[in-house]
Amino acid sequence: MRGFRVRDEFDRHWLGWTLLVWACTVAWFLVQRQGNIYWLTLGDTDDNMRLMQVRALLAGQGWYDLRQYRMDPALGGFDIHWSRIVDLPIAGLILLLKPFLGAATAEKWACGIAPLLPLSITMAGLSLTVRRLVSPLAWPIALALLLFTCTATLPMYAPMRIDHHGWQLAALAMTVAGLCDPKGARGGAVVGLASAFSLSIGLELLPFCAMAGAILGLRWVWDAGERRRLIVYGLTLGGGSAIGFALFASNANQAMRCDALTPVWLSVLVAAGALLVALALANPGSRWLRLALAALAGGLIVAGFVHFFPQCLGRPEQVSDELYTTWLSNVREARPIYRHPRETAIPIAIVASLGLIGALLAVWHARRTPRRIGWAAVALFTTFAAAMLLWQLRAAPGAQLLALPGITAMIWLAVPWLLRRGPLWLRIGIALLVFAGVGIWASGAKMPWAAKSTARPGSDRVRQANIACTRTSQLRTLDAIPAATIFTHVDLGPRLIVVTHHNAVAGPYHRNGTAILDVHHAFTGPAAAFRAIAARHRAGYLLICPNMSETTVYRARNPQGFYAQLAKGQVPDWLETVPLADGSPYRLWKIRYDR
């Protein structure tokens, strides 16, 4: 009788229990990361810039004005290609907490709590997918896998990770749930709205959204009964994207750019949605005719894109060859998985591989049941995500998330086969224990790949400098000098403007490309050329952080360049040393233009 009560409770109230797991995860994260919250430790440049965007909104900057005026203010600042969507929960939390905690503390806790909000949606979407495809009682296994094995996915929801990736992953989780929804219209609406929401935030998951649409198209080609699903998907994709553009596209994103939901991609999404609706309304009886029409529709979209938007056929960032060679091509997350250290690549590859194997096993196991179509969709999606890792590692969080239904199915099928008998609670308990161990194993604890790849000489010194140079307590010492524009490293710019009252020249954002190249030219070129570049940006001070990773690039490109001379102590007389506290990781000079 007890077994039936547990079964009924886990089945009927699965969402409540899922949210309880989420709440426990939130509590653990907030306690475990309270030091980061206290010191406002925003570890990524994008997180720092996101906070500056929220601050500007709360200070009265226009809804559609996403220009960052404290970055390169002499030239009017520069536009951020994001949207306001992800700013809203952070700003809302600040306003909610401010009367109780004060402005500064409210900001810290908002940055701690906000990334955990989309985790609830991700957990709900994952549980829903597993309930539909594996078993109504298998969702605890999927959640345990998410918490213990996803070394790339879970950090996207950690406190202080306030950039948009967590929200896009939440949309991806709901997309998968929609793909396997037995109710066609509801499933199509979920996939269409989730894709529109994700693309209104940013284009990072555009390949995943395109694959979801292709899978729905293939379902209709195979089964004309999927007509309603495809119609609703096309309407919600086009309509949702249009609403997202109208509500959230910044002034700068209303130009014909290729790096965000601009008129370029809005046209593509609306046209694609309209064509899918037209195909489904025609709904010819022949499977081969449906395939031919789907291929024709795809060809029309591609041909239209080539004809109307040729500027987007190359790099979507539309950066110069020099900027791509010297900066964008060296971004670590843009490299394929096999170009990363094994301690990073192997855990990701293990989860993705197990997910693919499990999904294929589940397709075979469900081949005579209605679930076979849903599993075929998930298997296609999982295969696509695993292949994306061979292109860029930034696909890793999505690939791991998509692997979880397949791994859950593998456990659910394998454990009863191993036990042969036993009550439900024992089966679930053993599965959780086994795959908690797998999670620790995949994360590298005491494994052969736990020993890091052979370190380059000085890598530990670089790592320590990266930490020290972005530390809040160190940066705050710079407020002892009057507010000014400080010429410093590109990667230090966003953190500088968050923690201090100073402005910076550049940040690692492709629309800031001219300023990025100016910083690179200033540090790698001759000393005599520096002042002209600094004067163009009206910089009052020069700040360097010796051994920060970016500085190794300067020295490698030109061992005789300006930065290399500064590192050797060869300081020109037009730089006036500004004393700093003992132990400071920085070197600071006032730039004298009158000498």
UniProtKB/TrEMBL annotation:
Keyword annotations: Membrane, Transmembrane, Transmembrane helix
Regions that span the bilayer: 12-31, 109-131, 137-157, 197-218, 230-250, 262-281, 288-309, 345-366, 373-393, 399-419, 424-444
This protein's name: AcrB/AcrD/AcrF family protein
Originating organism: Sphingomonas pokkalii
